[in-house]
Amino acid sequence: MAHLVQNLVETEVKQHQNKTPGDDPFQPPARKYRQSQLQNILKTLQNTLAICQTNEDLAGQVDTLKRIGLVHCRLGEYAWGIKCLEQSLQMANDVGSPKSLGVILHHLGMAYSQTNQDDKAFKVYLKALRIFQKTQDHSEIAKILNHLGEIHNSWHQPVLALRCFRQAMKIFQNSGNSLEGEGRALANIGEAYTQLGRYRQALAVLEQALTIHEKKTSSRYSSRKLTTLERIGTVYFRLGEELRALDFYHQALEIGQELSKSLHGNTRSLDYIGAVHYHLGNYPHALAYHLQALRLWQEISHPGQGESLFHEKLEFSQLRTVYNCLGISEQGVQCSQQVQKMIINCGYRVSEQEISQYLSHGGTINHNVE
Length: 370
Known about the structure:
The structure is a single chain. The protein is an all-alpha fold. The protein has 17 helices and no strands. Helix 9 packs antiparallel against helix 10, helix 11 (219-238) packs parallel to helix 13 (263-279) and helix 15 (312-325) runs antiparallel to helix 16 (329-346). 42% of the residues are buried. Mean pLDDT is 83; it is low at 1-27, 304-312 and 365-370.
């Protein structure tokens, strides 16, 4: 085992050393282009909203506010996105059709979920579910059930989650044209089985989900493939097969590096790889991965502000969550404390050799790190 791990570490180090200066796999040009496009769309929608207000077109205002909110969310500006969606919802209660009301509630629930407001998301999803049940919109019912199950999973209620996912899965299968929905439901069922400790069943359904995701080449499917690969890696880790877990996490990381929309996925994959190495006792390698993830997280959360800010609560919540998912939460606490001290004393950009030196000298290094 030790020999295999060392070989894997050496391979990773060589790959890192072979990168040319200035290479940054986490900042694809497509991301800047996409943001520019979204900003242009936002300006157009704001002009449209002004026209609708001038003409007292309430239905137009409802629809445009919804669209503005969605663009803000896609830009990562969730506070503005939620505010616009809430305004749209308020107006839709007076002039919107039941279907449009349900659609706004659906989008608002997703925005709440993205900002870790699961209580609000759950209530909004339930309202949307009642509307879609009345209008007999089975596709939307299945999507909402999937979302409700995901919240139950996040609340560590896998039995309730499974009930929602199985209902959603049945609807998707009966429709006969929702392969995407089936794949997502299967992946979620796998997550619930993992929480229940039914690892072989989890692997079986996750592999089915992966097969579905691999049939498509769009970025949306690639993003779900990334998440599914991470979930398979987590199951193998819990089965004591750390090297197989690392293989799946690296596959997820490779996909994330190719996607302009998966920078958060990159940070998560890096943290998973770091956590496995930490568990195996390869501390310098583990901390190097975690620092890389945290540096990327800073760039995403605070663009243009470099690494001068340190938000322990925000950045370390993901690191600890990863360790919790792997069932090694105590190691996660220890690791986050080590990483925090290292950031304060050495900064984010520190090599693995310098990390090793830092640890061997009781938390100090011999020279300043930029």
